[in-house]
Design brief:
Radius of gyration: 31 Å
Order of helices and strands: HHHHEEHHHHEEEEHHEEEEEEHHEEHHH
Distance between the termini: 79 Å
Structural class: alpha+beta
Strand content: 5-15%
Largest sheet: 2 strands, antiparallel
Strand order of the largest sheet: 1-2
Shape: extended
Number of strands: 14
Length: 421
């Protein structure tokens, strides 16, 4: 008995719906491949084999022929079904272990950040040069990014990435960690590998600190010393590649290194991540975010300067509260422009020769550097949320009053979630 038109239409709708779901779930590249996979499943083939055959063949006839002759085995890492012929192409040299392309890419992507590739099964070293064809095939268009990350991190393992002391050159190159003098391979400038100053004979029998002292006493007008001294006082250094930058006052705390592209907080140096890339599954719905300590400028910039002052005084941290004698006095804090030139802020002074914005920055900096905890300003809800956020149990104290409970909860948070050193 042949099916009616209504039955045929309903069956076509079911097949299309299932195919569309495969497409939306990323299991197939387009709905046509999904339809072919669904048809194969209706004929009795399991989902994994049907999807694999549909991705490799263009017609139902060729797909069935493929399935009858293909040899399937399980990936040793994820246990998904793969073709034996595909897995044989993925054997690592020299250990011979293999896995599906998806598992290999995921594994080696993580390994690249360690600067050394090892087997996912036996941890034997997997040299990049003799596995180049395999790596290029599994990474495809992403190979360039993978290769650059692996190269940089491998240098960091065995050597340090340094920058030429000649500002007109500024090239980066690798230097062995125990080397005292570094020679730029591009402009041939000789410099100290530790402090970065152009090499002078006066540095020969002096430590870097003593050489800096000598330069300040004997050659204070040396432009190189002046620029290095300015960087030491005002620079922001990338926590990943140590590239120095001039720190702009009044910033948003979110900084992106132009050298290595890492994004981090100007205050606490914590990295910014997108979603679950930080390693916390609870963050999968978040955009770019960082896990700042609670006394970081990222949070304290929203406090009033009165609250900041109280926190510092309670922690016995010395604070400049000088009020200007002249009511028309303006903030003299230098605001750095793109040419590294400072011009006075010019806004009316609040205290310590600074306007309210720069005075708050000064207070926030004291709080972070002095490891001052801010829990005394937190409410009950905020304390409980902090515990839940870090998967800590919220304690119950039924016999306490609300004020006693607030004090006790602050003590609990301080104990189980102390500020990092």
């Amino acid at each position: 008995m042949e099916p009616s038109n209504a039955q045929m239409k309903r069956m076509a709708g079911i097949i299309t719906a299932n195919a569309r779901k495969f497409t939306n779930d990323g299991k197939v590249r387009c709905i046509d491949v999904g339809i072919l996979a669904v048809l194969l499943m209706k004929m009795g083939w399991d989902e994994d084999k049907a999807l694999l055959a549909a991705s490799k063949q263009k017609s139902i006839t060729h797909a069935l022929s493929f399935l009858k002759t293909a040899v399937f085995i399980d990936c040793t890492v994820c246990s998904d079904i793969v073709l034996e012929s595909d897995l044989s192409q993925n054997r690592l040299i020299p250990c011979g272990h293999a896995a599906c392309a998806v598992c290999l890419k995921t594994h080696f992507d993580g390994e690249s950040y360690k600067g050394k590739l090892t087997c996912m099964e036996c941890t034997a070293e997997v040299p990049q040069n003799i596995n180049l064809k395999l790596l290029k095939r599994i990474f495809g268009k992403d190979y360039g990014s993978f290769d650059e990350t692996l190269f940089r991190r491998s240098l960091e393992r065995e050597e340090e990435l340094k920058y030429c002391a000649n500002k007109k050159c500024g090239a980066s190159f690798s230097v062995p960690r125990d080397l005292k003098k570094m020679h730029c391979p591009y402009c041939k400038t000789l410099a100290c590998a530790k402090c970065g100053f152009t090499w002078r004979k006066e540095h020969e029998n002096r430590s870097c600190e003593n050489f800096k002292k000598w330069k300040s006493e004997n050659d204070p007008n040396d432009p190189e010393f002046q620029s290095q001294d300015l960087i030491r006082k005002t620079a922001l250094q990338c926590p990943n590649c140590e590239m120095p930058y001039f720190k702009a006052r009044g910033g948003c705390a979110h900084f992106t290194c132009k050298n290595c592209k890492k994004e981090f907080c100007e205050c606490c140096k914590t990295e910014f991540w997108k979603g679950q890339a930080c390693g916390n599954e609870a963050c999968k719905t978040l955009g770019m975010h960082g896990h700042h300590p609670r006394n970081c400028f990222f949070y304290t910039r929203d406090y009033s300067h009165e609250d900041l002052l109280k926190l510092l005084k309670d922690a016995n941290v010395a604070v400049d509260e000088t009020v200007p004698e002249d009511s028309t006095a303006t903030c003299s804090v230098g605001v750095t422009n793109d040419d590294y030139r400072d011009s006075p802020c010019g806004v009316q002074v609040l205290k310590a020769g600074k306007c309210e914005k720069h005075y708050k920055e000064y207070l926030c900096d004291l709080i972070f550097r002095g490891r001052v905890d801010v829990l005394s300003t937190w409410t009950m809800d905020k304390l409980e949320n902090e515990l839940r956020k870090h998967k800590k149990e919220v304690p119950v104290f039924p016999s306490m009053s609300s004020n006693e409970l607030l004090v006790r909860l602050r003590e609990v948070v301080a104990q189980v979630l102390p500020l990092a050193p």
